[in-house]
TrEMBL record:
Gene Ontology MF terms: kinase activity
Pfam families to which the protein is assigned, alphabetical: FGGY_C, FGGY_N
Domain of life of the organism encoding this protein: Bacteria
Residue span(s) of domain Carbohydrate kinase FGGY N-terminal: 5-249
Family annotation (InterPro entries): ATPase_NBD, Carb_kinase_FGGY, FGGY_C, FGGY_Carb_Kinase, FGGY_N
Annotated ranges, domain Carbohydrate kinase FGGY C-terminal: 260-448
Name assigned to this protein: L-xylulokinase
Biological source species: Rhodovulum euryhalinum
Entry keyword tRNA-binding: no
Keywords: Kinase, Transferase
Single GO BP term: carbohydrate metabolic process
SUPFAM superfamilies recorded: Actin-like ATPase domain (SSF53067)
Family: Belongs to the FGGY kinase family.
Keyword Kinase set for record: yes
Length: 515
């Protein structure tokens, strides 16, 4: 058996490959950017074959950079974003471009389902809400608007499964992807035939993939894939898991007392439920967790990607700051200087969409507002958005009662920001060791499938760890939380204003595409 494993993580912007030894130490990592297109307003698509090229390039770079003999790779596995869609013909080739889970084309159809009660009925059958980028909704939209795609489709596939199919030919899925797609009854693990019949989608049933465990060897690297990636032909390929579950495993979430919070492109809050899925307050996503139990997830596009936009668009693009040094270091230092202080400024991190149509904005500024206080407001506003998601995750009698938060994503790289999470959320925050948690989580599956560890639990204990812990400060937290009710009220008021039709809207000039 080889002494290392590879995990691939295909995310919203990048496809990454990371090489780990069997103790979880990262030996090499490479990234390739995915090409995302926006062919119509609200659509977000991806060239599936381009994503495979990005993955194969990343694998090749990892092997080359590390000087690893391909024969030393014990196994490889894949994680990817949940929901979205990849539809394949009988030969495993895409019948149309892939769809990313940030796609919003189904909004009008979902409004119909909400009005006639089908959305609520379906949510009870699949144990999670129905939302625009969900695979269930996308399949219904395609059946209505692109019926020829249904006829040409042999297999419904998801991000990680398409890539794994290119590695070894297997097109099955696991319970995490099938669950996050909204296509199964979470409690039973069976495809949700009743929900599909309710929505008139029975034609998709024979096209849905076989479901199996995340840590099972399902094939071996083909000669064609070996030539593209540098892997040894015959290397075991393990089924893998959706990125949310991978991050939770890499964060050592093994008990309901631990909550996984990802602060990256998305705000993601995941809680573990041992005895039964969460039924009394239906979450955004829910699926069987590879270690047992169920992971209930709340999320929104309101996290650290908003800071990235501010830095790239307002700071660097506008000439940057004259203080020198890395711009993120400058921003982090600004927040450090004013930690625990009050600012009237409030940041609403809705650049990629807000609740009920709430707009993004930095409000409450005056001529006396310093750069440091403005940056403090941005950090604080993003944590407030996480708090809103976490409060939803912890709603209901069946909600988990976590005692610690495991924080990953871009925000976790800043000790000051991590402390702010602990201050505002009122729970200790632990930051796991490492940086590529999606890749590590699926590498844990690879190591288990290859037999290097006896179980996923043993693999997590051997390959994951905690780098630091922040207890939080109640006094600092009180300063932030005093603003939170006003923050929520202003968020809701702005949403109401922005969603109120303007008079004579039909004669209003359209907003510039470059605005």
């Amino acid at each position: 058996m080889g002494d290392c494993v590879i995990g691939i993580d295909a995310g919203g912007t990048m496809t990454k490959a990371a090489l780990f030894d069997l103790s979880g130490h990262e030996k090499s990592c490479a990234r390739s950017r995915n090409v995302t297109t926006f062919p119509h307003l609200g659509w977000t698509e991806r060239d599936a074959d381009g994503m495979w090229r990005a993955a194969s390039d990343a694998i090749a770079h990892v092997l080359e950079q590390s000087g690893t003999d391909p024969g030393d790779v014990a196994a490889i596995s894949v994680s990817g974003y949940g929901s979205g869609l990849y539809l394949l013909d009988r030969g495993g080739n895409p019948v149309r471009p892939g769809i990313v889970s940030t796609d919003g084309r189904t909004a009008a159809m979902l409004a119909e389902w909400t009005a006639d009660g089908r959305a609520a009925d379906a949510a009870q059958l699949i144990n999670q809400i129905v939302w625009p980028g969900q695979s269930l909704a996308l399949l219904a939209w395609l059946q209505r608007h692109e019926p020829e795609v249904l006829e040409r489709t042999h297999t419904v596939s998801f991000c990680k499964d398409f890539l794994r199919g290119r590695l070894c030919g297997d097109l099955s899925t696991d319970f995490t992807d099938a669950g996050s797609a909204g296509l199964i009854e979470v409690a039973t693990g069976r495809y949700a035939e009743e929900a599909l019949r309710l929505l008139g989608m029975e034609a998709w049933l024979p096209r849905l993939p076989e479901i199996g465990p995340s840590d099972e060897v399902v094939g071996h690297v083909t000669a064609e894939a070996a030539a593209l990636t540098g892997l040894r032909q015959g290397t075991p390929v393990v089924r893998g898991t959706v990125d949310m579950a991978a991050s939770a495993m890499a964060s050592m979430v093994t008990d309901p007392a631990q909550m996984s919070v990802v602060a990256g492109t998305f705000s993601i809050a995941s809680t573990l439920h041992r005895d039964a899925p969460k039924m009394d307050a239906v979450p955004m996503l829910q699926f069987a967790y590879p270690l047992g139990g169920w992971l209930a997830v709340q999320g929104s596009a309101t996290s650290a990607s908003n800071l990235e936009w501010v830095v790239k668009t307002l700071l660097q693009h506008g000439g940057g700051l004259e203080t020198g040094g890395d711009i993120y270091d400058v921003v982090n230092s600004a927040v450090r200087r004013v930690r625990g202080q009050h600012t009237n400024a409030m940041f609403f991190p809705y650049l990629f969409g807000g609740p009920e149509g709430a707009p993004a904005g930095l409000v409450g500024m005056t001529a006396r507002t310093s750069f440091d206080k403005a940056m403090l407001a941005i950090f604080e506003g993003i944590v407030f958005a996480h708090k809103a998601d976490i409060d939803l995750a912890l709603t209901g009698a069946q909600a988990a009662r976590p005692e610690v938060i495991r924080l990953t994503g871009g925000a976790s790289r800043s000790a000051h920001w991590s402390e702010m999470f602990a201050d505002i959320l009122g729970l200790p925050v632990e930051v796991p060791a490492g940086s590529e948690f999606g890749a590590l989580g699926t590498a844990i599956c690879a190591a288990t499938g290859a037999g290097a560890h006896g179980s996923l639990a043993e693999a997590i204990a051997a390959m994951a760890g905690i780098a630091r812990r922040h207890e939080g400060d109640a006094a600092r937290g009180a300063v932030h939380l005093a603003k939170y009710p006003k923050y929520c009220a202003l968020r809701d008021a702005m949403a109401a204003v922005m969603t109120t039709p303007a008079p004579h809207a039909a004669t209003t000039a359209p907003e510039s595409a470059h605005a």
